[in-house]
Amino acid sequence: MKYSSKLESGRWIKRYKRFFLDLETNDGVLTIHCPNTGSMKNCGSEGDIVWYSLSDNPKRKLPGTSEIVELSNGHKIGINTHLANKLIKEALENNVITELSEFSSWKSEVKIGNSRIDLRGENEAGEYCYVEVKSMTLLEEHGLGCFPDSVTERGQKHLKELTELVQSGVQAALIFCVQHTGIERAAPADHIDPEYGRLLRDAVKAGVKVLAYQVAFTEDSADVVKGLPVVL
């Protein structure tokens, strides 16, 4: 996936009101939009390099959008959670995610009942597979990536919906889009949201596939490159 514009860089000063990020740039302090609703725990601090895109839309109050944080240890983190669905859809269409390669014709934001599911694919037999995507950026110790980084009632609801789908005879999967290059394996964050962990394990027992795929970053692109083990 190519970014919409050439990325610029600055140094992290502070994040505040969740969606604002101040950067130190060659032209002074710049406030950009931070499209991330999570806590962003361990995802950056003062002095870290932030790569951001610029919009030419004159109606935007903040023309810049944070895309990647580059930590002092060299790891990169994709902090634009809005891109996770796009990255995973592209990977599914290119058969990078081999566990679901029998499905094609992937559609986004498919309505089912009173909810919307991130993605839906269809195989040659006309069978559907529904997929929810979660962006994983929290790196704990020894390469262990965890989701969520704060309690998520919405995420819990999605797990219940996936479980109900497989119980009705439809295939369903949860894919962690791992946007931290230091993460080596994925797990539920039981220490942050134990209910999410319980529901995830129940979903697996019911037949929901849980996968984790890692993203690699350059200054102008981001791509899903490999699967990671999921630890339950």
Account of the 3D structure:
With 232 residues, the chain is of the alpha+beta class. It folds into 2 domains: 8-78, OB fold (Dihydrolipoamide Acetyltransferase, E2P), CATH 2.40.50.580; 81-228, Trna Endonuclease, Chain: A, domain 1. Helices cover 16% and strands 42% of the residues. It has helices at 84-93, 153-167, 194-206, and strands at residues 8-16, 20-25, 28-33, 49-54, 64-70, 76-78, 104-112, 115-122, 128-136, 138-139, 144-147, 171-178, 185-188, 209-217, 222-228. The strands form 3 sheets. The protein has a 6-stranded antiparallel β-sheet with strand order 3-2-1-4-5-6, with no helix packed on it. A hairpin with a 5-residue loop joins β8 (115-122) and β9. α2 packs parallel to α3 (194-206). The protein is globular and about 55 Å long. The mean pLDDT is 96.
The domain tally reads 2
CATH topology title of the largest domain: Trna Endonuclease, Chain: A, domain 1
State the CATH architecture of the largest domain: 3-Layer(aba) Sandwich
CATH class of the largest domain: Alpha Beta
- Provide the β-strand percentage band: 35-45%
Distance between the termini: 30 Å
Mean pLDDT: 96
Poorly predicted segments:
none
Largest sheet geometry: 6 strands, antiparallel
Largest beta sheet: strand ordering: 3-2-1-4-5-6
What's the Cα radius of gyration? 18 Å
Tell me the helix content.
10-25%
| Separate helix tally | 3
Structural class: alpha+beta
Q: Give the SSE order as H and E letters.
A: EEEEEEHEEEEEHEEHEE
Total DSSP E strands: 15
Family: Belongs to the SfsA family.
Protein name: Sugar fermentation stimulation protein homolog
GO molecular function: DNA binding
Domain Sugar fermentation stimulation protein C-terminal: 82-220
